[in-house]
Amino acid sequence: MMQKFLGILILFITQVQAQQNLWKGYFSFNEITDVCAGNQTIFASTKNAVFSKDLNTNNLTTYTSINDLKPNEITTLFHTSTKHTFIGNENGQIIIIKPDGTIVNKPDIILEVPVPPNSKRINDFYEFNGKLYVSTQYGITVFDLTNLEIDETYYIGSSGELLDVLQTTVFNNQIYAVTRTQGIKKAALSNPFLYDYSQWSVFDGGYWLSLVTFNNQLIGMNSNNMLYKFVGAIPQSFASFGSVGIKLKTSATYLVAHANYQIHVFNTALALQSITYQITGISDYFTGAAILNNKLYIGTSKNGLFESSIPATNQFTLLSPNGPIQDYSFKIKKTIDELWLTHGSYDRTYAPDYKQEGISVFAPQAGWSSIPKGALFNAVSLGTILENTKNKTEKYICSNHSGLLKIVNKTDVTLLNHLNTGTSGLESLTYLPDPTYKSVRPNGLIQDKDGNIWLANAYVNKALKVLKPGNNWQSYDLTNVISDVTNERYGNIDIDKNGTKWIATFLNGVIGFNEKYNNKFIVVGLDNGLPDKDVRCVAVDKKGQLWIGTYKGLRIISSVDRFISENELTATNIVIQEGDLAQELFYQQMIQDIYVDGSNNKWVALADAGVFHVSANGKTTLHRFTKENSPLPSNNVLDIEIDEVSGEVFFATDKGTVSFLGSSTKGSDNLEAVYVYPNPIRPDYTGTVKIAGLMDKVNVKITDIEGNLVFETTSQGGTVEWDTTAFGKYKVASGVYMVFVSAADGAETTVKKIMIVR
């Protein structure tokens, strides 16, 4: 159904090559999955990205979806003698960073290896004599490094079945494979029939985790927390470690034994040179290790990549690029001068995840900083963010279990809950099997023009709350509005020009409320045109229409003014026409977020289907972004936010945050700040010219130096784009062009110049 729907709806797709300079990435480099060494470069991976440090120049280079690195989930990393960096994924995808920095996606294993999709995880890479041996969940696949193509695949289970291979190595012309359940297997490397499972024999039947060749010896890591060297076929222990072993790695002079809470380094005589138990000041487990130039590089699960010395000291240098706490971004807020991210979540039923992750804050000059979980009273499941428009030093963050956080100047934190907000403030749900259980679940933070902060409190009778200036709370009882109020949960809230609050609910559709009309409520549910009672989001547009995103599609209420004069409201769908075929817009699709931009166009996030940018009436697709055709790192976009001044559109996803430089901005109060960019227009520029800083609905005329009109339009919002053509007919010639801007009443005017060089 989704593929059919997309085929009907997509009017055009912007290709990645044309988009690159319009996109930015806001990725975390803290959650390391593997570390490997190159010639003079150290590489580290996260689930969603790779970065490297050149030890000669100290330059850090990042590879993300912005430059077309779009992994499924990175599991392992390897740098070959040909200077290619191989990236292995959970689903069998291989991505190669070539020596010139270009990225090649190799779906060969996904497409060509005939095994179940959930059995293609890549565990390890090993290079020998121009071949790359890929240890996978099903066996071994061999790549030829001269042409980067698959040579052959070995299924080495005792009966030819799939067998999880953790690592391979070559010793004395024998290839060895560490398997998860059938010990260590081996075969003659010269055997032309290695694809035949019967050619492989069991070298050791124990439970092994890793095997490497080091200083002309076979070295193994066993699941019994011991390290062994093989004398012939006999393993002899030479060291032990006190935590779960993960992998062995080697350099020319060192053996690294990596366990989750220990890293041991041995020299060529297998004498212990160094032990690392903990990064100073950090409680975290290790996820990768490698050695380069007598330095040890350690990856951690949440705190990034560190460099230390051999022998180990208490001195550690953080190498990870600056970024947010983690890539999983749940809610995002653009303030005047900062970008705020929360990393909590809740499921479709609004059940909290109980994660404690802190808050990430980005400032253009200072970069990323964080408010740690300890400073937030260890509040969990952090979500919606609000900046107090009456006091911009104050931010409010919903915790879908702990209550409401009030943060002043990013340092002074108060947790508001059932204990400190009075009888009309926040309330805990009642859980009868355990009456001592307390959980306060606010959501839907929004502020009205008078500075009142509204939210919805799940599972209680007085669910609609307002925090008024002066820290005064007031509650509104929904007992007579909906029948199952103590089981109800809430999504976002939007407020229209009349002060009506529109509340998304899980079980009852949309609730409209306005205290100025005798506390009037109207419920819009299944009987009123909604395709599903589970409303995920609501948004009031600039023409007074209410857009309603549900679990099974989109509906609109034609005018929010109807709430004042009517007692029942009906929602309708939007039908788009493609040739002779009519189709409901977003039919049966789960809509996760709707954002109305400065031109009244809508950005719509669909569950696992990316983002649509549609026209004001929804009938034209302006942009369609997915992981496949854009730098979106994931099709699961959880939240959308727009910088109303610059037009930058932010997408928070489960695999990182990116932004797209849109052209729809909020109209200014006057024309004092009008500017044109880029300017001048040089021969290699292929994009449009933006005239920004406009008031809404001003007239924009562009003429050549002799006064001939080449473009005219009326602004919708704060930005107008010109494609440098004469009314779309032909590209204008080199020269100076005049931009005349005037308000409808003529009270505000300005003139700008554009230089075009062909």
Short note summarizing the structure:
This protein is mainly beta and 758 residues long.
Key attributes of the depicted protein:
758 residues; mainly beta; four-stranded antiparallel beta sheet
**Which radius of gyration do the C-alpha atoms yield?**
30 Å
Structural class, judged by helices and strands? mainly beta
The proportion of residues in beta strands is: 35-45%
Number of strands: 64
Percentage of residues in helical conformation: under 10%
Sheet having the most strands: 4 strands, antiparallel
Oligomeric state of the chains? single chain
Mean pLDDT: 93
Spans of at least 5 consecutive residues whose pLDDT stays below 50 are: 1-20
Distance between the termini: 46 Å
State the strand order across the main sheet.
1-57-56-55
Shape: globular
Number of helices, where a helix is a run of at least 4 consecutive DSSP H or I residues: 4
Verbal overview:
This protein is mainly β and 758 residues long. The protein has four helices and 64 strands. A four-stranded antiparallel sheet has the order 1-57-56-55, with no helix packed on it. A hairpin with a 5-residue loop joins strand 44 and strand 45. The radius of gyration is 30 Å and the shape is globular.
